Amino acid sequence: MLTKYLIYPLFGLLLSASYAMAEMKIGFVNVPQVMAESPQVEQAKKEMEREFSARMNRLEAARNEIQRMQEKLNRDSAVMSESERNKLQNELLKTIRDAKRNEDDLREDQNIRQNELLSNINKQIQEAINELAKEGEYDLVLISGVGYRSDAIDITEKLQEKLKQKF
Fold first, then answer.
1. Which residues of 108-122 are buried (b: 16+ CB within 10 A; e: fewer)?
2. Burial of 147 (0-12, 13-18, 19+ CB in 10 A)
3. Please, which residues have CB within 8 angstroms of residue 35's CB and are 6 or more apart in sequence?
């Protein structure tokens, strides 16, 4: 019985000492910084702009048309016949509804596409982190959300270089 109370604590001390003696190599990656500076994100932004620029231009033209129609209605409503005024008001409402629907569709399509691109970029970042960890023989790589970290373990720049190489 006495050996049970002496051996288990001794065994625990020996085990914890061996863990303490083993040196861990830890790295830290600032993912928001990587996302802000990676060429993949810049390419995705340009791709999004190129993909949706025509629709955005059409939407801007519709907004200008709505503004033109509202100005005409405000300016000329006193001299228009009631049927002309009603026709212009109905046309204005239809244009507003169409523009709103097109804007909602555009925003939804942009969100879907942005999520696809970000998912792909996140996958590339994770693969690069895994490669960097294996190459640098890191035992643990932490990403953002860390209360404190020393600059000595920050491998963000190494990760950014690896992503640039893959680009």
1. eeeeeeeeebeeebe
2. exposed
3. 41, 121, 125
Kindly report, residue by residue over 56-84, the tens digit of the pLDDT: 999 999 999 999 999 998 998 888 889 99
- Asked whether 33 and 157 are in contact (CB, 8 A), the reply is no
Whole-model pTM? 0.69
Residue-wise pLDDT for 95-105, tens only, equals 999 999 999 99
What number of other Cβ atoms are within 10 A of residue 85's Cβ?
15
Q: Is the dihedral of CA 94, 64, 108, 112 positive or negative?
A: positive
Q: What is the pLDDT of residue 122?
A: 92
> H-helix or E-strand containing 142?
strand 140-143
Torsion (CA) 115, 120, 123, 129 in degrees, nearest 10: -110
Contacts of 103 (CB under 8 A, 6+ apart): 59
